[in-house]
Amino acid sequence: MINNGDTAFMMLCTAMVCVMTPGLAFFYGGLARRRSVLFIMMESMIAMGIVTLMWMYGGFGLSFGEDLGGLIGNPGDYFGLAGVGFSPDTVHATTIPFALFFLFQLMFCVITIPLSSGAYAERLNLKGYLFFLILGTIFIYYPVCHWVWGGGWLSDLGFVDFAGGTVIHTTAGFAALAGIFVLGDRKLQKPGMQPSNLIAAAIGTGLLWFGWFGFNSGGALSAGELATHAFTNTVVGLASGMVTWLIVAKIIHGSIDFVDVMTGSVAGLATITPCAGYISPVSAIIVGVVAGIVCNLAVEFRKRMQWDDALDVWGVHGIGGFTGTILIGILADESVNGVSASPAQFGVQVLGVVVAAAWSFAVAWLILKIVGAATDIRPSQEVIDQGLDRVLLHERAYDVVDATTLESLGAEAEGTAPSEPASEGASGGSLADDG
Hints:
Layout: H1 4-31, H2 37-45, H3 47-64, E1 67-68, E2 72-73, H4 98-116, H5 126-149, H6 153-157, H7 165-183, H8 198-217, H9 225-253, H10 258-272, H11 281-305, H12 313-331, H13 334-337, H14 343-374, H15 381-386, H16 388-393, H17 403-414, H18 427-433
Antiparallel strand pairs: 1-2
């Protein structure tokens, strides 16, 4: 029987998770180099169209259809929205319309592969990204989603993931790592990624914060105590993750910056996601502290290994989701949602997240290797230098000239000679040089 309160709550949660996709676009776009802002934003937003149609025509059935040997769902189930009606489902959504469950789960699917795109920024052309988006969704997201949430073999073992720490963040993070290894490094004149617009990144971060409450609370599939538990843990995980990240960054680097504030909060959120509905708020503080330490150290390890993970997807999302999934086996409180910490639960959690990570890495590696051998999926170095926005999209995010040119124009207007350009170490100079 449909519960109107649950239905209204889940409609709100679905809309909030939907907002996370353009939020991710702003977050990645603001942190990307100015010459490729629009391309990386498009990688997130185009998924809303493509993945939605895939979900309608086979994807939902592969994820939540009748179980086939514990490995995958029946693709014929719900094909073309057949059987996806407005009455509750006896298995997956007992108090809300089944169509609403379909839409809520769709939003998770939409954001997963785009989440990985920040790691290999500027190393896939449009054709290559579309291949990876489609094939990665089919061969990475659908199977892992079915194993965990659709009645597959991991759920039969007792493995749990409340809101996607394994299904979304671990899969995206380790698929991203495979992309880094297969596609290689960019030839950068400066180390790392030079952010184009930290204000845009802050807007994206705020949208991600907002959407994450629906992301985690919606895992309860109803309004009530469990959803409130997840909501509370989301706030606590964000806060303790951010503060711990800043402390660790200060210890390691001697200073902190605005990117640390944003990244630390996202690390806390990614880590609390799988356990948001299984632990107490006091334990959520511990999860955030662990996130701030482990994810920060993962990013430092990545730098030491000189992996070109442009926006640290593996260290923040991959390791965050991986860590939070394991912590369920240590911190779960049976009074919250019927799952208790134990050696057995810990073992199942480790097994499940390791398999999901390995599967995602291996499949992503194979997809990129096979498609890359069949067709050209990488932009040339010349295209990267000129900018993917300008060459592939024939657009530019910022219709501006660099600081030296502006100074020259001003000097000509005043009849004086321009002064020497600012040193590259200045913040304005570094962004201008990144054109």
